[in-house]
């Protein structure tokens, strides 16, 4: 590594390059904190040229590189490589353009999600994707993970909001994908790049759609005895053709945690609460809000509160948004899981998660985006109790198996990263995975861009996969060593 | 070709394989009828296995293949290869599943766009992308071209509605991309495949989102003296935060043609008409419809008609939908152009198109999706008059240059195909195009999947592009021979 260190110091200046072991520890993990790797070198990039110079150095020396924004990811996508360079984009925080006429903003990747919304508000706009970490997570990280959030039910994921990217590819070239227009000719590499978790290169500038602030926002909180009823209400709302901005659900244990942490004052005795938010033109929201209210009642809500003002609305959300951290009040340790199931299976899957928890002797709190079936079970445990961590891990893994069994997905919005690569073969056939890896090999034949993430079996890129047909006897596995 | 012909007859049965020269002529062009090439062989596929067997035969013999649905494309995307196999998917017409609960349909690629809507209507759903050719165009062709339509302003393009694909890749493998869920983990190859115009393989099964039929649809027709006023009204509607299902514009010459063909009875003396359609919940539509009406008046509409019922609404659309064909009534020949400009530049660009037409001594009728700046200038000419065809071609090309000059795109919804590959370097740098071709080479290293389409300079796929950096002296062009 000495050679690449020297080159980076020379090309970028010594203050951009960290190699002191103690300083490197700052970057040993992202939000998935139980995976830790100390990188060999950290580069604090400020410009596209600095990112490109770093990647070129890595390409020339065949040294792995990993990009990192704010480091809030929950699947270990920004977990460093022990022999690699970690490229930190957190200092690339310039908002380059906000154009209300075009409904677009152009930002550097280190810009914080909520900052962009704040900067757009004076023009009557905001940036719609809103991960729970929006106060701290970066747009670049959102692009890597195709981040979602509570309001993605109506507004879609990051990929639905990115129209242009400047990208440094794994060979160090700087290219433009897309632009301000929708649907340019040629291959839509924006779609492939957003959510590629750093395996196709590093985004150095991002052009996003801005969304007009809604005329009205109305929010209600409905409390239920029996979590099935909350699930049925969710399905009924969607089946009625209403698309709320958000439908969030919390179960009794999650409510207990939130009350302990932020005293949100949810209706006592609830097995589940739904937070339903509608936004849009006042006339539409008024009509649909009555419908949602009626459907919650019809499905057995024992109390419905309608936010009278922004303060009360903020209080409804405070409980939900603090839920992950709040669980720390009722359990020393916990695992955040992220999986997707069909909405129609909500009640059944939640019962089976409960059975799993009981069987494994752990507790599971459920907080999730009910509207799109995106579960976030929090598996509680105490690392000090021998065997509990393992039982929690098993429970968390079994929940993912459940999601697959019901035709869902191993991740809704946290990404695959280092954490879930092992589950990919349960969702996809070898041929499907091979086809995806064609793209990876095309961009990164030497396998230096965030290796070990997403795909469980790295492939020797010189070999063309998918050439094994009936009647051929080639040893397929022979091509799959790294 | 004898060898591959024999193999195809043997594997698929002789009735699936056409080699008779007269029969082959049926397939010599698609909707871009002035480009004609007779293919060497036509295969009429019925199943995924038949498509896969055909592509495998082509891969083994390194014979080019081109897929074709209904052949209605307007950029020559399905133009055959003289030494290649044309795979016709028009007989793959099975609707395999319509699931209202999942809001999904699964279809074979030959299913006609409008058929799918008709089959979904009893459940209260429809398939939203609606190209003007929807009565005859196939879903497979829509996938290849990422087709749009009048209502894509609100509902998005084909890519926004496809969630899963079964694809035969250029080496003959059958793989699944995506599924019924949104945003699965791994690379989003759906985005890249939709709109890849047959260069990454052949779609053999398509899973699409179904859209709930709106509670209400309301349509108005506004007539203007001065096309600028119609442009200003369009911008004002969008700026007001209204997203109509469609905003269509026709100019005086297009109106003249439509009147001659279908007697649609638009207000006499109009320089431009706008058709604005709103759909959605009744409460929202009612409120926004008043706003649209007001904005048309404020921008100088001299007559506004509101469709009283479905019959009158159909009459408004009849003029618009017949406009392309109607132009045949007032001109022996015409070229349909397809380009995109920023909405805010509508008036200015239309004036410059008018100047171009005058300068070249041809007439241009404008019919277009005003809401998203997608122009369809129809350049009229008489092939019997020496030099007119050339002047029309020049005018049509100059219009594309205008679109690029204003920061727009060389195609809005018709694709690049054989027709516009030459314009791609005007929109993209060499590095950008190289990066796109990485994907093509990964899927199709031998260059047999619809060669010559989209990209102007086919690349020797063994060479890695993008390796030329400052200070290197390699002859870039040397890597680009085919």
Write the layout of secondary structure elements.
Two copies of one chain form a homodimer.
Chain A: H1 2-12, E1 17-18, H2 21-24, E2 41-44, H3 48-61, E3 65-68, E4 85-88, E5 95-99, E6 104-107, H4 113-120, E7 125-126, H5 139-145, H6 152-155, E8 162-168, E9 174-178, H7 189-193, E10 202-209, E11 211-212, E12 216-224, H8 227-239, E13 246-251, H9 252-262, E14 272-280, H10 282-298, E15 301-306, H11 310-321, H12 323-330, E16 333-336, E17 339-340, H13 346-360, E18 363-369, E19 374-381, H14 388-405, H15 424-427, H16 430-443
Parallel strand pairs in A: 2-4, 3-4
Antiparallel strand pairs in A: 1-2, 5-6, 6-10, 7-11, 8-9, 8-10, 12-14, 12-15, 13-14, 13-18, 16-19, 17-19, 18-19
Would you write up a description of this structure?
Chains A, B: This is FAD-binding protein. Chains A, B: Its cofactor is FAD. Chains A, B: It comes from Paractinoplanes durhamensis. Chain A is of the alpha+beta class and 482 residues long. Chain A folds into four domains: 1-213, 2-Layer Sandwich (Uridine Diphospho-n-acetylenolpyruvylglucosamine Reductase, domain 3); 216-260 and 269-321, Alpha-Beta Plaits (2-Layer Sandwich); 331-419, Alpha-Beta Plaits (2-Layer Sandwich); 430-479, no CATH class. Chain A is built from 16 helices and 19 strands. In chain A, the strands form four sheets. In chain A, strands 12, 13, 14, 15, 16, 17, 18 and 19 form an eight-stranded antiparallel β-sheet that branches. A five-stranded antiparallel β-sheet of chain A has the order 5-6-10-8-9. A four-stranded mixed β-sheet of chain A has the order 1-2-4-3. In chain A, α9 crosses α12 (323-330). Chain A is globular. The two termini of chain A are 21 Å apart. Mean pLDDT of chain A is 91; it is low at 465-482. Chains A and B meet through β9, α7, α10 and α16 of A and β9, α7, α10 and α16 of B.
């Amino acid at each position: 590594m000495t050679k690449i260190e020297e080159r980076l110091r020379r090309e970028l200046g010594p203050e951009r390059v960290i190699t002191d072991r103690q300083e490197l520890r700052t970057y040993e993990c992202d939000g998935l904190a139980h995976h830790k790797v100390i990188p060999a070198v950290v580069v604090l990039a400020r410009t596209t040229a600095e990112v490109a110079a770093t990647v070129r150095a890595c390409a020339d020396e065949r040294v792995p590189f990993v990009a990192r924004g704010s480091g809030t990811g929950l699947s270990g996508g920004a977990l460093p490589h022990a022999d690699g360079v970690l490229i930190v984009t957190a200092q690339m925080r310039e908002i380059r353009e906000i154009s209300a006429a075009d409904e677009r903003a152009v930002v550097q990747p280190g810009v914080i999600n909520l900052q962009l919304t704040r900067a757009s508000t004076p023009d009557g706009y905001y940036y719609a994707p809103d991960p729970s970490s929006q106060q701290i997570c970066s747009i670049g990280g959102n692009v890597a993970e195709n981040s979602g959030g509570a309001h993605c039910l109506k507004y879609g994921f990051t990929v639905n909001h990115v129209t242009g990217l400047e990208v440094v590819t794994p060979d160090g070239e700087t290219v433009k994908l897309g632009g301000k227009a929708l649907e340019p000719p040629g291959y839509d590499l924006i779609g492939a790049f957003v959510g590629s978790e750093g395996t196709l290169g590093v985004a150095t500038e991002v052009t996003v759609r801005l969304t007009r602030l809604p005329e009205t926002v109305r929010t209600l909180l409905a409390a239920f005895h029996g979590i099935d009823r909350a699930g049925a209400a969710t399905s009924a709302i969607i089946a009625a053709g209403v698309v709320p901005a958000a439908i969030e659900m919390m179960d009794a244990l999650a409510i207990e945690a939130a009350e302990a942490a932020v005293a949100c004052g949810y209706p006592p005795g609830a097995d589940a609460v739904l937070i339903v938010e509608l936004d849009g033109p006042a006339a539409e929201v008024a009509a649909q809000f009555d419908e949602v209210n009626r459907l919650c009642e019809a499905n057995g809500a024992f109390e419905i509160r309608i936010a009278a003002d922004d303060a009360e609305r903020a209080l409804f959300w405070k409980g939900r948004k603090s839920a992950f951290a709040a669980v720390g009040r009722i359990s020393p340790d916990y695992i955040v899981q992220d999986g997707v199931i069909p909405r129609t299976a909500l009640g059944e899957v939640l019962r089976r998660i409960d059975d799993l928890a009981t069987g494994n002797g752990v507790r599971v709190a459920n907080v999730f985006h009910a509207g799109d079936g995106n579960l976030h079970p929090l598996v509680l445990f105490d690392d000090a109790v021998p065997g509990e961590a393992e039982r929690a891990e098993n429970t968390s893994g079994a929940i993912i198996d459940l999601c697959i069994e019901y035709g869902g997905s191993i991740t809704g919005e946290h990404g695959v990263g280092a954490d879930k690569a092992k589950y990919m073969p349960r969702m996809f056939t070898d041929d499907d995975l091979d086809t995806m890896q064609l793209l990876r090999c095309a961009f990164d034949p030497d396998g230096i861009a965030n290796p070990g993430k997403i795909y469980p079996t790295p492939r020797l890129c010189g070999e063309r996969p998918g050439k094994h047909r009936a009647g051929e006897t080639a040893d397929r596995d022979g091509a799959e060593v790294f």
